[in-house]
Amino acid sequence: MHNCSLDAKIRAQVVETQAEAKKKPAEKKKATADGPKPKRLKKTNDEKKSSSTSNKPKRPLTAFFIFMNDFRKTFKTEHNGSFAKDAAKIGGEKWMSLTEDEKKVYLDKAAELKAEYNKSLESNEEE
Fold first, then answer.
1. Is the Cβ–Cβ distance between 67 and 106 less than 8 Å?
2. Exposure string over 20-32, b if 16+ CB within 10 A, otherwise e
3. With the CA atoms of 7, 11, 17 and 20 taken in that order, what torsion angle do they form, in degrees rounded to the nearest 10?
4. Stretch 75-102: mean pLDDT, rounded?
5. Burial label, 113 (beta-carbon count in 10 A; 0-12, 13-18, 19+)
6. Could you give the CA distance from residue 70 to residue 105 in angstroms, rounded to a whole number?
7. How far apart, in whole angstroms, are the C-alpha atoms of residue 12 and residue 18?
8. How far apart are the C-alpha atoms of 53 and 67, rounded to whole Å?
9. For 49, which DSSP code?
10. Could you tell me the CA-to-CA distances from 99 to 92, 94, 104, 116 in Å, in that order?
11. SS3 at position 69
């Protein structure tokens, strides 16, 4: 008998066992994942809103967000096509550096919006 054929058979068996060992983890994953996991059911917008909150007005913007709306407009014109995170970072730094007199304009606008919001809340509660 010739040794070449015996060596070839042994090598073939070793290669087959290595290939099977590599396939086993993949087979295990397939076996455990019989089907897709059930997803959480999300409520639709109609289900989220109840009848008492459907007429509720939106909350007013704070002084900082009123400032940021104005700042973004000027930032976009000055820095053509810059990223939003840059505008937010620079806007936050600028807000912190504003004096009380400069902030007063935005604080007054926010107070007006808050007063309107409170009036609309009261009128919705009476109905």
1. yes
2. eeeeeeeeeeeee
3. -140
4. 88
5. middle
6. 12
7. 10
8. 29
9. S
10. 14, 10, 9, 26
11. helix
**Block residue for tokens 């620079």:** 90
| Max CA distance (Å), the chain | 104
CA terminus-to-terminus distance, the chain: 102
The runs of H, that is alpha helices, within the chain are 3-32, 45-48, 63-78, 84-97, 100-126
Contact 96, 67 (CB under 8 A): no
**Which two three-digit tokens encode residue 35?**
């089907």
Instruction: Return phi, psi of residue 73, to 5°.
Output: -60, -45
Structure tokens at 60: 């007013």
Determine the Cα angle at 13 with ends 7 and 14, to 5°. 90
Average pLDDT over residues 8-33: 62
Q: Which whole number is the average pLDDT over 95-106? A: 95
Query: pTM for this structure?
Result: 0.55
Task: Give DSSP secondary structure letters for 17-44.
Answer: HHHHHHHHHHHHHHHH--SPPPPPPPPP
